Amino acid sequence: MKQLSLIILTALALFSCNSAPVKDVELHNLVTMILGEFSNAEQTEKDASFRHLNLKSVRIWKDRPGYWVYTEVHEASENNNIYSQRILEYERVDSLNFKSTSYKILNEKEYKFGWQNAKVFNKLTLDSLRLKEGCQVYFKKKTSTIYSGKTNRDSCLSSIKSVNHITSSFVVSKNKISVWTRGYSKEGKHIFGKISGPYKYKKIAKR
C-alpha cells in the first residue's frame, strides 16, 4: 500500500513539474469557456427563424506565446456548409479588459474541419493570415463565470455587399455562448443579421 502511494505521489509531482503554470487565470478561464463544440439546437426548436448551427473552437499553437484559437461555424446538418473560419488571438488589455483579434485564413479550405486535429495548424504561418482590422472584440469580466464583449462602434468594416460595417456582441458563460452579429449601411440602417436577438449556443462536447 505504501509503495502504491509513493508511485501516485511521484506521478503527481512529475505532472506538476511538467505542466506550464497559468500566468493569467482570468484570461485562461475566458479562453477555456469558449473551447469545445456548441449547438443552438434548443434555440431553433423554439424559434425556427434561427438557422441550426454548430460552433466549434479548439486551441492551437500552445507552444507559442498567448492564446490562439481556431473557430469554425457550419450548418448542423451539413459540415461542408461552412459559414466562418477564423483564427482568434486572445490577450489581456489592462487590469479589467481582454480582447480577441480576428484573422482570416487566406487558404482556409485547407483547414476546414481543423477542430478535429489542432496539429494541422502547425504548418500555418502568420503571413498566411489577414488581420480583420477594427474587428477586435473587447471583453469584460462580469462575474466569476460570465464575460461580455463587443466590437467598437462603426470600426469593423464589412466585405458583404451593401453592408458598410458590422457589430458583434458576445456573452460567454459556463457551457454557453451567445453571439449577436448585425450589419449596417453607411446611413446606420440595420440591413444584415437577426433583429430578434443573438444566436444562443450550448456546449455539447469539450475540446
TrEMBL record:
Superkingdom: Bacteria
Which protein is depicted? CpeT/CpcT family protein DUF1001
Which range is the signal sequence, renumbered to this chain? 1-19
The similarity comment for this entry is:
Belongs to the CpcT/CpeT biliprotein lyase family.
Q: Which InterPro entries match?
A: CpcT/CpeT, CpcT/CpeT_sf
Q: Does the keyword Signal apply?
A: yes
Which keywords fit this entry according to its UniProt record? Lyase, Signal
Q: Does the keyword Cytoplasm apply?
A: no
The record lists the membrane-crossing segments as none
Q: Extract one GO molecular function annotation from the record.
A: lyase activity
